[in-house]
Prior knowledge:
The chain is α/β, with parallel strands linked by helices. It contains eleven helices and eight strands. The protein has helices spanning 49-57, 84-92, 103-117, 129-140, 165-172, 181-195, 206-219, 223-236, 240-243, 263-272, 291-304, and strands spanning 9-16, 19-26, 33-37, 61-65, 122-127, 145-151, 250-255, 277-281.
Amino acid sequence: xxxxxxxxxxxxxxxxxxxxxxxxxxxxxxxxxxxxxxxxxxxxxxxxxxxxxxxxxxxxxxxxxxxxxxxxxxxxxxxxxxxxxxxxxxxxxxxxxxxxxxxxxxxxxxxxxxxxxxxxxxxxxxxxxxxxxxxxxxxxxxxxxxxxxxxxxxxxxxxxxxxxxxxxxxxxxxxxxxxxxxxxxxxxxxxxxxxxxxxxxxxxxxxxxxxxxxxxxxxxxxxxxxxxxxxxxxxxxxxxxxxxxxxxxxxxxxxxxxxxxxxxxxxxxxxxxxxxxxxxxxxxxxxxxxxxxxxxxxxxxxxxxxxxxxxxxxx
Length: 315
């Protein structure tokens, strides 16, 4: 069960262009900063408190936040892109896809949050879609990134590591219209049992997973925002050329049992990013069930990247 953790600071930050991001920070602000970017449709609470606590105890100032169109951050309701099937076809053909925004905009949101919090540099950690955003932060704002950690993420290359058909089908399956919190919990419980860790050391107990999902959907539920984020992924294309130019210490962390973003995607990322270190975790699926091990890996890597000293702050 998650242990209680008190935020040092929490609220909403104006990151520009009409976007305000809900955020929480943990740990002493004079310590080196780690910014956690969550994935598709997920909220800041999807970063397990045990993982956050491990990073704080290791001497880091941790920031987690809701991306635009998720959780308690700005919702871009009223902005529509094309239907997803058409978007997928056009993307496969190399044609443009109409979307309300791109992953590059989420990267700028992240840097805008760093500005608002006075962070000149930070270790940037992204999970799934958040890893895609983190790649763009490191590419477009390299001076702001002390190190890069990519969890269960992808380069966007169409010919690399397609999801297992059952995982893709489960992800695209929608809950009932006007679903109650209890119905949402059961729908996403079934989803995470398909895409998450198999039975073994990293699989969350049923009651723990249900409790986390209940807390999530009691806080917020933004299905239209998730759809817009998915369109942003499709419309943003691949990042292979950008990755080959990165000069940021990079750790690629990935579950060896991930059916949604298979391990071949991690190998592809590590091969494309100069000097990247690859770490595959056995019996881990598309989730953060190995939270203690993941926390240890991130903390050790960030420390080795040379950011144990006090971070510089923007004036």
